[in-house]
Each structure stands twice: as structure tokens, then as C-alpha cells.
Amino acid sequence: MGGTGSEVDFTQTVLYRMARLAKLYRNELAKKLTQLDIYIGQEQVLLNIREPEGVSQAELGDRVKATPATLTKMLQRMERGGLVRRERSDSRGRASRVFLTEYGWTTRHTVERLWQQAESRLTAGLTREEAVALSRLLDKLTAGEVTPRRAEFDS
Q1: Cβ within 8 Å of residue 59, ≥6 positions away
Q2: Residue 88 CB contacts under 8 Å (≥ 6 apart), including other chains
Q3: Which residues form the HTH marR-type domain (predicted)?
Q4: Are the CB atoms for 21 and 92 separated by under 8 Å?
Q5: Are 140 and 146 in contact (CB under 8 A)?
Q6: In a domain, 147, yes or no
Q7: Is 71 a member of any domain?
Q8: Whether pTM exceeds 0.85
Q9: Helix, strand, or coil here: 88?
């Protein structure tokens, strides 16, 4: 398989570098979460339940970008671990609200601290202005202002 001389070194692309950085921090966080008996992804659920009155399961799924089936499985595991509880919220017993238990709130605070420590390490070599600029650029990318919408990836 000979080269054409115009091949891109994908290790030098922005996407590759972002993915590598995300994996590095995700793996580091996963090790610390395991010590709390939390699986990766569950921290997103904990961090996205901010309301004492709970959140609808549908809203939570939107917040964490999880399919209903994935979220249901995750919540079942978290219920068994004593982190969350669910209550039916409509007369037909179909819609659920998700609440953090007391243990869930305590664990959430620990996860917040771990997250803040990772954030501090990530931005330690940046000036305040650079960190703000990076955050704005990531917001722009996440909002789809620069990247194609998901539908464009699926076609």
C-alpha cells in the first residue's frame, strides 16, 4: 500500500488531540471513581441531578446524552448502589423522576471535588485568558457552530 505523498498525519489533527486528551482524563477519573464504586458515566448522572426535587428521567437522558435503554440500565445499577431513587410521576405510572439519595448527594460532592481537581490539572499550564478562550471554543464546537450536526455524520 504505497503512499501518495499527500497523506495527513492524523496524530496532528485537532480531533485526534482532543480525543487523546479526553481519554487520558477519562481514564484517570475512572480509576478514582472505581474507588467510590462508581462506573464511568455514572458521574455524569450524579453531576446532572442538581435539583432537590429530582429530574425527569427523560430530561436526565437529554442532559447526559444517553439512550433511554442505557440510562435505565445505569439508573438500575445506581439504585442498587444506593445513589439514586426513582418515583413514578404520572397517573399511568410511566414517567419517572430521579432523585439523589443522601448517599448520592455525598458522593456527588466527592465527584465534584475530583472533577475540579482534574480541571485544575488540565488548565494549570494556561493563563486565565487562555482557559476562558478554550472554554468558549469548546462551547462553540459543542453547540455545532463549527462541527456538522449529528445528522450529517449519520448520512
Answers
A1: none
A2: 94, 95, 96
A3: 11-143
A4: no
A5: yes
A6: no
A7: yes
A8: no
A9: strand
